[in-house]
Q: What sequence folds into this?
């Protein structure tokens, strides 16, 4: 069970590769923004499984902060893309 | 190689790829998006290396506050200087010429 946790965390981090490809190749800024939001979600999931593997609940706070603040960052990006400035 | 070091090297490779993207992307907004990706993956690496407090500050500052600060700076520069081309690619915000005039 302990090896399964770290395997899922490694799989989540491996999923950052295609998302980085989309972030580099995306034809519009909106595609890159969606790829970045998905990257933050994947990183938060990897943090959850890594904290379960390391058996430390302190790491869960970082996942909470990453999830909530990537959401706020995406809202700010959407406002910028809509209005042209903040 | 144990799972811990595999996770470590994968995070390092993702940070390197995102940093190369910051340098290589031609568009200014896309480079800022890649900079935010660097901050996100760097916070993940901080947690993997066992520093969750640094990961806290990296999430707030490196992944969110620094790109937003860059966006404010870019928006103010585009508002002050008359700019006609927008961001130069599809999906970019349209230039608001009636406001700048």
A:
């Amino acid at each position: 069970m302990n090896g399964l946790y770290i395997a899922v965390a490694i799989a989540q981090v491996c999923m950052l590769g295609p998302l980085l490809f989309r972030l580099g190749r995306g034809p519009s800024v909106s595609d890159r923004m969606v790829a970045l939001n998905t990257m933050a979600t994947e990183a938060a999931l990897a943090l959850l499984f890594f904290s379960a593997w390391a058996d430390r609940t302190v790491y869960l706070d970082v996942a909470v902060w990453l999830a909530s603040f990537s959401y706020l960052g995406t809202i700010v990006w959407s406002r910028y893309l809509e209005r042209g400035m903040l | 190689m144990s799972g811990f070091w595999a996770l470590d090297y994968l995070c390092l490779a993702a940070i390197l790829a995102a940093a190369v993207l910051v340098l290589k992307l031609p568009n200014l907004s896309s480079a800022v998006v890649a900079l935010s990706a660097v901050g996100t993956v760097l916070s993940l690496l901080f947690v993997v290396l066992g520093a969750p407090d640094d990961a806290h500050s990296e999430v707030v500052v490196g992944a969110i506050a620094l790109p937003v600060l860059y966006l404010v700076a870019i928006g103010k520069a585009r508002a002050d200087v008359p700019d006609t081309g927008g961001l130069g690619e599809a999906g970019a915000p349209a230039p608001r010429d009636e406001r700048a005039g």
Remarks:
- The two ends of chain A are 47 Å apart (CA to CA).
- Helices of chain A lie at 2-14, 16-25, 29-54, 59-83.
